[in-house]
Amino acid sequence: MGNADAEKDAEKFLDVIDVTKVYRMGEVTVNALRGVSLSLYQGEFAVILGPSGSGKSTLLNIIGGIDKPSSGQIVYKDRDISRIRERELTDYRCKAVGFVFQFYNLIPNLTARENIMLAAELSANPIPADKLLSEIGLADRADHFPSKLSGGQQQRVAVARALCKNPSLLLCDEPTGALDIETGVSILRLLQDFNINYRKTVAIITHNAGIGAMADRVIRIRDGVIDSITQNGHKVSADEVIW
Fold it and tell me: Which H/E stretch holds residue 30?
């Protein structure tokens, strides 16, 4: 099945339409995004690949409502979130989107369970923290503070926190960038399981081309434009990713 046929059969979830992002720093102008258009689909696992400075983090931040485009539209379920009020944008970020970043950003004086439960307050239908702790293999570390957890364990807690509010869209910015290979694979396995078990849309940005092998589609971005979008006909599991 070609790309066009596959996309016709999928339920469109979010549209990025001719988005630009211009940063002005004094007399210097940086065109981070230059007319980017793409769609994300319900329940897909998408990987956005690109080198440092390609615009992929800027794109993720705009899709997630952290930043606004200079021009263009972000349409989520028929609603243009690039033109809504700040309160509505906050509601979108809090309820519809989960974020996983390279650095864990856990609150140091809260336990693993308490860090995860923070996100439950943002959702009408959260996934129970203890269920997630079990799924990430940290049930026996629920009452430990971040300082008593390894880097990989902290990232697992950060992933569980993002999943706790049961988001429609999970956005991950280099989620394995600070981890060794074995721990990185365990994080990818969690993200893949969430995508499969809960049928939620997951988008990962990374410079690691090997992660693209586990995606439904690989979106390549370079110099602020989409270089290519490829349907992956032979997805692999997280454990089969070649680093």
Answer: strand 28-41
In a domain, 122, yes or no: no
DSSP string, 80-91: EGGGS-HHHHHH
Q: What is the pTM of this model?
A: 0.91
For the segment 141-163, what is each residue's pLDDT rounded down to a tens digit?
Answer: 999 999 999 999 999 999 999 99
Q: Are strands 169-173 and 201-206 parallel, antiparallel or unpaired?
A: parallel
Element (H, E) at 175: none
CA atoms within 13 A on the CB side of 96: 17
Host domain of residue 75: 3-96+168-240
Q: What CATH code is carried by the domain that includes residue 182?
A: 3.40.50.300
- Token look-up 């308490």 returns 114
* SS3 category, 211: helix
